[in-house]
Amino acid sequence: MDFRLTEEQVSLRESIIRFARSELSHDIRSFETNGSFPWDAWRKCAEMQIMALPFPERYGGCGADFLSTVHAMQALGYACRDAGLVHAIGTQILCGLQILLFGGEEIKDKYLPLICRGEKVFAQAITEPASGSDALSMATRAERQGESYVINGSKIFISNGPIADAVIVFAVTNSEKKALGGISCCIVEKGTPGFKQCKPFEKMGLTTLLNGELVFENCMIPLERMLGKEGQGGIIFSESMEWERTLLPAAHIGTMERVCETSVKYVKERSAFGKSIGSYQSVANKIADMKMNIELGKLIVWKAAMLKGQGKRASLESSVCKLFVSESLKKACLDAVQVHGGYGYMTEYEIERDLRDSIASTIYSGTTEMQQNIISRLMGL
Amino acid sequence: MSVNEMIKQFISSELIPEGSEVPLTDTDHLIDSGIIDSFGIMSLLGFLEEKFSVQISGDDLIPENFESIATISALILEKNGYQLEV
Fold this sequence. Notes:
The structure holds 2 protein chains of 2 kinds.
Chain A: H1 7-23, H2 28-34, H3 39-47, H4 66-79, H5 83-102, H6 105-117, E1 122-125, E2 141-145, E3 148-159, E4 166-172, H7 179-182, E5 183-189, E6 195-197, E7 211-222, E8 226-227, H8 233-269, E9 271-272, E10 275-276, H9 281-309, H10 315-345, H11 351-359, H12 368-378
Parallel strand pairs in A: 1-4
Antiparallel strand pairs in A: 2-3, 3-7, 4-5, 5-8, 6-7, 9-10
Chain B: H1 3-15, H2 38-51, H3 69-80
Helix pairs in contact in B: 1-2, 1-3
């Protein structure tokens, strides 16, 4: 077992860190105040081909393996302080992976180049007002009418939803069947009659990531927009979650590395009672916990990424990864605010934003409690 | 033990809640009856891929392939022609 990054992975990591530090230094606070999306930063990330990383070259991708993509996301989470932007990019990549894994050639030819170039923004719509953790108990319907599907229903909290040019929508196509056979996926493009993108919600954190409600009222799409086969949606959901619960935590590991570095620097410089505060065990223990969780988190993220990259199942590993890393991120950010004292609570130090951003990580992509359910079920309990 | 029997044994022991006595046949509908749900499919896929050394992805991941022990077994045999006699 070799945990060292390859030369290419080291080079990729370093280039993304350099890029993020020089090009993604926008004033996040002004975007938070305006509630707007950092389009310039998005375009720069697209030019840097971050969104193109895991896709085959024939679609305009870089052909990187999934583990390298995960290293790239970790580097981005480390060097880019805008976690909302990082999440938006992660969402774009994950939509592309769904299309790559389950789309027919026509769909892949049409959409993957747009995803790779960042030319169009993509979103996936699963959550509904009345179904969060129990995602597959959705009410949105896609009814077959001749050569079309007619979609009715609504989705909520959808990341990238308000600005998406195309949305992968999960909907019930056969209400007589259980979720596994009765749900399908289809792609709805912006501007389709009956498709309404509502304004973004105001949130506690991740403010540059725009989340909103999507409404479908007799929204008609052609049969060719079906992603995968009819009835495959439940399985696509389960498979997609393995990728998602690996990729997003990779960025969180990066954030934890940055938060830890910032905290170490501060507790070495800050003195109290004649000594640096880092020399007090009550402070040092918090830093040690951060480091421990970063190292353990890397192992499970990389393991899950390696399995997915090899085409293997990683249901258990990705759930452990999601649960452990998101809880660790939240704890690290809370501890970082604590060791920074009053300064940590001030917006100027930007630690409080990391904390606000971290809270959602234990909620989206399946709450901590859902990951515990999945893990225990997979253990036969 | 045949492929069908190995699959049946896994489903009976891992996916059917303890205490219930569901007599499984090779053609019973596992999805419609709720024996395989969104959690169960992950568990089943993990078992199949490890036990029979197959990769199940893309077009193979359709509900029809997991409707019954017979269809699951057919998928495994199609993937690698696996047959085990113990």
